[in-house]
Design the sequence.
């Protein structure tokens, strides 16, 4: 049987179609896996940002004599973490909406529960839900500080 004759054998078409389907399935799975990995990477990064921020928030609030001082310390810490040295209306709105989180942390640390104060996880979840509902990206993206590469100069 010659090579051209083998190329026209009907059962080879079936194997070629099966190979094409297997290749397409593998490509589809690789795309889905890559997308899932990206999603899990983002969730991990956000979870650690959440942990680090809440740890810093607890430290900022821990020594406060009263709720007002605690909230001011918490908001100053948040501004510092985000690198916000200037005020703007959107930033003021974020800080205002973050205030219940600071209050919840203060009440949790002072064991002075307030009936109208949410728990820390509830307050943070409410803040995150507000943020994602009013902004194009999640709050935790604000913590992505890209440092541009600078050229190395030897003298």
Sequence:
């Amino acid at each position: 049987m010659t090579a051209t004759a083998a190329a026209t054998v009907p059962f080879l078409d079936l194997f070629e179609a099966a190979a094409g389907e297997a290749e397409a399935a593998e490509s589809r799975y690789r795309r889905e896996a890559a997308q899932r990995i990206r999603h899990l990477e983002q969730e991990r990064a956000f979870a650690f940002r959440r942990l680090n921020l809440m740890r810093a928030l607890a430290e900022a609030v821990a020594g406060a004599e009263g709720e007002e001082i605690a909230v001011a310390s918490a908001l100053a810490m948040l501004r510092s973490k985000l690198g916000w040295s200037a005020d703007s209306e959107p930033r003021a709105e974020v800080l205002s909406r973050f205030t219940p989180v600071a209050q919840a942390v203060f009440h949790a640390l002072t064991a002075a529960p307030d009936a109208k104060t949410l728990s820390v996880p509830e307050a943070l979840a409410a803040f995150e839900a507000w943020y994602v509902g009013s902004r194009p990206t999640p709050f935790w993206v604000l913590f992505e500080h890209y440092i541009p590469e600078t050229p190395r100069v030897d003298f």
User: Anything to note?
Assistant: Helices lie at 3-7, 10-62, 67-82, 89-110, 120-134. Residues 82 and 143 are 6 Å apart (CA to CA). The mean pLDDT is 89. The two ends are 73 Å apart (CA to CA).
